[in-house]
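Cross-posting from the modeling subforum.

Setting up a comparison between two proteins and wanted a second pair of eyes on the formatting. Protein 1 (sequence, then structure tokens):
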Amino acid sequence: MLLPNWNSDALNYNVLCRILNRLGISVLRLSMPYHDIRRPAEIRRADYAVSANIGRTMDACRQAVLDIRCCLDWLQQQGYERLGVTGTSLGSCYAFLAAAHDPRIEVAAFNHASTYVADVVWHGQSTRHIRQGLEPQIDIDRLRALWLAVSPMSYFKQFARWKRKSLIVYAQYDLTFLPEFSRQVVAEFERHGIDHKVVVLPCGHYSMGETPYKYLDGWHLASFMGKAFKG
């Protein structure tokens, strides 16, 4: 299963899906809450997925995790036995939360990774407008506590319960998911003894989707998924 990035359109990642198909991996691409065909008519971006509305942001995350697990149910009904997930940016957050609660996910690839949703929103370049909406009323510590339930950092103990292979890809010059947060994620994988591989690309958050880095990223994701499922 593939989860795209925040504000991705309905055609993003179709090329990656075809590459995985050539490796013998079937892919179900999920339209995330408030994205593409699920976007309300009154908005032009997926702003409702992550916003200064604390409750709606949590609800969108909860819905995404439910969507993933329902898709796993459907895939099993279609006869698929080995299941995995790959997510990018916001999609990687949703993928981690689902994997922490569902033992059916044997392979997980996190394309960009971070610790707390609040930290990304507070310090990320792409979410400065959200911070501006929150800052007059709340500080980072309170926001981190409120969004604890939808933050990957809360669920490493649960994630480590089941044996699975994981890939972490992050960008060395990322101004959205700051590299220091991604390194904290890697440290948690190591502390919990989770089987994982780490790839660091010499680019930024959005330049990872541009030439030549998108080809490097795609190669790492596809080769990891292919080897993991063959193993």
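Protein 2 (same layout):
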Amino acid sequence: MSKSSVVTARETPVSKTTSAAAGGFAVIAETIAVDTGERLDIIDLTETVMALVRRSGVSEGLLSLWSMHTTCCIFINESQAALEVDMKAYLETTVSREHYYRHNDPEHSDCDRQNADSHLRAMLLGHSVTMQISGGELVIGQWQRVLCGEMDGPRTRTIRAQVQGLVVNKSS
């Protein structure tokens, strides 16, 4: 077993923005850069992704969000200062940074970030969400927000957003 992680490489880099359309169906993708300020941070992306959906012109379809990092996650929850503190405390209690992890041990891993806890926390929250679009708007509950969870910051993170669905010509 190797001490190094397996690297995944694309033959061509992901474009910052892409789009394709056929008939009344369109796919629009954008890369969203997120600057995080703390090792464990929660950033509300709701307004950003709602604006993307509105710009896309898709009236009925799907929004898919994907974190391009193993220690950064995307999830849906309420956004409130007290709850953010609770979320961070829960993650710190559930996956302690002080626990022994082979990923942090030079005998087993070449990772120098000492961030096994970050990988495990991100694994709990997930790296993607898919949401519905209806009437040209994101389908989201009253208290639901789209959140980016930084588990190993501060850093600049990359989130890939893709909107796909039916585009209705508003001039018809």
